[in-house]
UniProtKB/TrEMBL annotation:
Native source species: Sanguibacter keddieii (strain ATCC 51767 / DSM 10542 / NCFB 3025 / ST-74)
Protein name stated in the entry: ABC-type polar-amino-acid transporter
Broad enzyme group: translocase
Pfam family, one: ABC_tran
UniProt cross-references to PROSITE patterns, sorted A to Z: ABC_TRANSPORTER_1, ABC_TRANSPORTER_2
Molecular function per GO: ATP binding; ATP hydrolysis activity; ATPase-coupled polar amino acid-transporter activity
ABC transporter domain sequence ranges: 17-251
Membrane topology classification: Peripheral membrane protein
E.C. code: 7.4.2.1
Catalytically driven reaction(s): a polar amino acid(out) + ATP + H2O = a polar amino acid(in) + ADP + phosphate + H(+)
Keywords: Amino-acid transport, ATP-binding, Cell membrane, Membrane, Nucleotide-binding, Transport
Length: 257
């Protein structure tokens, strides 16, 4: 093993994801402002905040779906590569689940999940199928393996998307508002899968409006507003005693409904 997988000083796990001084502009709009954030191996960090605060851009920057203007992002001790094969390898280490499910409509559920391991990792078909079926079972939809995406509910499709990301055996999973496109009754079936992943020790960065999930599964809540990290704390501390006025205002609006 290389030194990046060893423990940091003091016996705590070394940061698996580390952002230092990250800035991002869209034209004149400064969407990420000097972001410093480190996520330890096995940690679940939930990012919350008002719309337009930079949460999704932060998530997308971590696997270079968005480039950054300045600063550094490291994964497991290595700076994010610019492009080419090294970037493809990085993306295999960073699983991503979006608001929309982005499944291949013309492929079965099983084919959707096996495609990445076979094409990117060179896994043999039989091995990829075995892995895919175990992951579909893990997310509770192994009986749907032969169906097409259009035959599944939104909640089921999102669980396929999670299984597909897990099939690459990533080091960290990014979730960008994974339940925001779902009908209310389907939200919990996806959140339950995510809670299970958290309990299994998967490193996760989750952008979400689901405060119940943040309370139940997060090790740390990061609150963003206006492109900045305003405060971060353990869930109970954040929800019961937010320090910043901006967080107090945000919580007063969402927790009273």
């Amino acid at each position: 093993m290389d030194d990046t997988t060893q423990k940091a000083e003091g016996g705590s796990p070394a940061a698996l994801v580390a952002l230092t001084g990250v800035n991002k502009h869209f034209g004149d709009l400064h969407v990420l402002k000097d972001i410093d954030l480190s996520v330890r191996r096995g940690e679940v960090v939930v990012v919350i905040g008002p719309s337009g605060s930079g949460k999704s851009t932060l998530c997308r920057a971590i696997n270079r779906l968005e480039t950054i203007d300045s600063g550094t992002i490291e994964l497991d001790g290595h700076q994010l590569p610019e492009e080419g094969k090294a970037l493809a390898r990085l993306r295999a280490d960073v699983g991503m689940v979006f608001q929309s499910f982005n499944l291949f409509a013309h492929k079965t559920i099983l084919e959707n999940v096996t495609l990445g391991p076979i094409k990117v990792k060179g896994m043999k078909s039989a091995e990829a199928k075995e892995l895919a079926m175990s992951l579909l079972e893990r997310v509770g939809i192994e009986s749907q393996a032969g169906k097409m995406p259009a035959q599944l509910s939104g909640g089921q499709q999102q669980r396929v998307a999670i299984a597909r990301a897990l099939a690459m055996q990533p080091k960290v999973m990014l979730f960008d508002e994974p339940t925001s496109a779902l009908d209310p009754e389907m939200i919990n079936e996806v959140l339950d899968v995510m809670v299970g992943l958290a309990k299994d020790g998967m490193t996760m960065i989750v952008v979400t409006h689901e405060m119940g999930f943040a309370r139940k599964a997060a090790d740390r809540v990061v609150f963003m507003a206006d492109g900045q990290i305003v405060e971060e704390a353990e869930p109970e501390e954040f929800f019961t005693n937010p320090r910043s006025e901006r967080a107090q205002e945000f919580l007063s609006k969402i927790l009273t409904h």
